[in-house]
Amino acid sequence: MFKKILIANRGEIALRIIRACKELGIKTVAVYSEADKNSLHVTFADEAVCIGPAESRNSYLKVPTIMSATMVTGADAIHPGYGFLAENANFSEICHESGIKFIGPTAEMIRTMGDKAMAKYTMKANNVPVIPGSEGIVDDVVEAKRLAEGIGFPVIIKASAGGGGKGMRVVREGSEFELAFVTARAEAEAAFGNGDVYIEKLVLNPRHVEIQVIGDQHGNHYHFGERDCSVQRRHQKLIEESPSPALDQELRDRMGAAAVKAAKAINYESVGTIEFLLDKDKNFYFMEMNTRIQVEHPVTEMVYETDLVKQQILAAAGEVIDVPNNRPKGHAFEFRINAEDPDNNFRPSPGRIESLNFPGGLGVRIDSHIYQSYSIPPYYDSMVAKLIVWDKDRNSAIQKAKRALGEFIIEGIKTTIPFHLDVLEDERFISGDFDTSFLENFKPRNKN
Length: 448
Ligand code: MV4
Prior knowledge:
The structure is a single chain. This protein is an alpha+beta fold. The protein is 33% helix and 27% strand. The longest helix is centred in the middle third of the chain and has 17 residues, at 249-265. The radius of gyration is 22 Å and the shape is globular. Bound molecules: ligand MV4.
């Protein structure tokens, strides 16, 4: 087992990883920027190293500095968390070459899945259902248009280096195609330094349903059911839940089997997520794979009674992972509490937390690095807390969420708490009958 893990991250996920390490008896090293010296991950780690100024590119993304901090403290592994270096294949490779275990997949696995056209090709070759579309990337506009006509409009043009909604263009009819194609390629080139795009049939009103998977170094792969992440705004998830209101056990078994097939196709090691689109006829299609622990992992932990971060560390240490053939128990939601003003287009609202009350009680979990008098720096992601609620069924969990959000007081900054309380009064949300367009159409009751 590892003796000391350096956590190359900040905020709630750094704290989450420190908690798992403590329970496993592993020492921890926090790294922090000058803006984060008063952060809780620094307080609770066994050691802490300042790695540079506030700007991420000069601190949390600075590979040579992080490697130096690892060597100086004698850590034998690095946990990247999510974001920052978590899906950086070169970083995984540098760790490997330095004799430091990267707690995540190999560079090759990250590269295969980071190239979305390559990922899709690999899935299709392994009989994981994919969305009908071009065979790989298309670079000629005439050929691309001919392909789009064959697929049938509407189609979607996606950047192969993109993902998470970046560099996508919907094309509703042939006359719009050429401009959309040229623009999509130029945007992809500007954003990713790679203009490759591919084309797919547009799936109308899909749900975003993702399957949690884990693989060890001995060829064992398992899944932990699904999370429904359809409640998103501009590709930012706001509420996630498990199980999905759209799945029964039969569909869960089939999607789980497809996700395990996907993981086995690349002999995946570590925790990961297979994202699917689910259409209204309950057909599911592979969309992309996230090769990291995700923000929303706690909802899965609650209903599968598993500590996924501990499992991820054990798998990285070479242990055999064994997941009993389990089923979800009860229902869990996660609400992302962001320092944003929901009444002003979710504009960031950093600043000092003047007063703070966390909710509590049975089935209420808070993953957060904030405390009273803490100042939220403006340099990083606006998420300041995750409220996770668990109860025996979906309706009970909704009641618990309302109760817990009502007790959650953060003064000094604007947060998404009132927004969540509005969503919890929405009939479509309550009935579970929503898709990825839910928030575009969402209008809070009692507001005009
Ligand atoms: C799609 C789609 C419809 N049809 N692909 C958005 C994020 C990126 N991972 C892929 N995305 C989509 N791909 C086809 N063929 C609709 C989306 C999409 C979406 C997906 C999941 C969650 C929210 C979304 C919001 C808008 C569009």
